[in-house]
Amino acid sequence: MKNEAWTIAETLDRHLTEKTEIIVFGVAALLLDNQFREKLAGRKTNDIDIIVPAARELAVDSDRGFWQAIESANRELAPLGYYITHIFPEREVVLTCEWQKHVVNLDCGFEKLIVRRPRLLDLIVSKMGRGDARDLEDVRNMLRLHAAAAGRAITSTEIEDAARFCHVPEAYREIFPAARDNIVGVARELTPSLVQRHGDEGPQLRQSPWEGPSQGMRM
C-alpha cells in the first residue's frame, strides 16, 4: 500500500543517478516502514524530513547530483502538493547523543535510494522540539506500535532518561521543558495499559532486530 511519503521517496529515487542514503524522521519514518505503514493508513503527510549527520554535512552540501534530484523530484511532486524541503543537520534536531548507533534500515526496495530511520525512542525525543497536539498523537501511536512489535512498552522513565541527555538546539530550548513534560506525560498515561497488554521485562529486554544497532552503511 502506497502513501504520500512512499510516493515522495519513490519519486526521488527515480531522479537519483547513484546510490544515495537518507535518514528520514518525523511521521514519514513510520510511513516508509513496512511494519507500520498499514497501521498508520489514516495519517497523512505532504513531505518527508531528512536528518544529515554531522560527519556527512560537507559531503551532502557538495553533492550536486543529490540536490538536482531533490529539485527535479519537487517539480514532479508539486501538482500533488508534495515536496522535500526539510533537510536538517543533526545539530538542528532534538536527538539523543547516541542516536546514530541505533539507526534502523528500511527495506523499501528502491533502486538507488537507501532509506533509514532513527529508532522509535529517538523519534519520540525528536518530537520534543515542538510537542504540539499532533506531535503528542504521533507519540501515542509510536508507543503503541513499539509495544506491539517489540513486546514491551517504552516507559516514561526511559523517555525521561533519554531527554535528560539529549541534544537540544538553541531554537527549541525555551519550549523544550514543556514539550518534554507533555510527551513524558503521554507515556506515563499509556504505560499501564501497554504493560498489561504486552508485558514489560525492563530496559534489558531482548532487542528487536528492527530496533538494534545499524548493520548498514554508516552516514
Question: Can you walk me through this structure?
Answer:
The protein has 219 residues and is of the alpha/beta class. It folds into two domains: 1-118, no CATH class; 120-202, no CATH class. Helices cover 42% and strands 11% of the residues. Helix 5 (120-126) packs across helix 7 (156-164) and helix 7 (156-164) packs antiparallel against helix 8 (176-198). The chain is globular and about 50 Å long.
Structural class: alpha/beta
Radius of gyration: 17 Å
The CA-CA distance between the termini, in Å, is: 29 Å
Mean pLDDT: 87
- The neighbouring-strand order within the major sheet is 3-2-1-6-5
Q: Compute the number of structural domains.
A: 2
Which of globular, elongated, flat, extended, rod-shaped describes the shape? globular
Helix content: 40-55%
List the helices and strands and how they pair.
Layout: H1 4-15, E1 20-25, H2 27-31, E2 49-52, H3 57-61, H4 64-77, E3 87-89, E4 95-96, E5 104-106, E6 113-117, H5 120-126, H6 133-150, H7 156-164, E7 166-167, H8 176-198
Parallel strand pairs: 1-6, 2-3
Antiparallel strand pairs: 1-2, 4-7, 5-6
Provide a concise account of the structure shown:
With 219 residues, the protein is an alpha/beta fold. The chain has helices at 4-15, 27-31, 57-61, 64-77, 120-126, 133-150, 156-164, 176-198, and strands at 20-25, 49-52, 87-89, 95-96, 104-106, 113-117, 166-167.
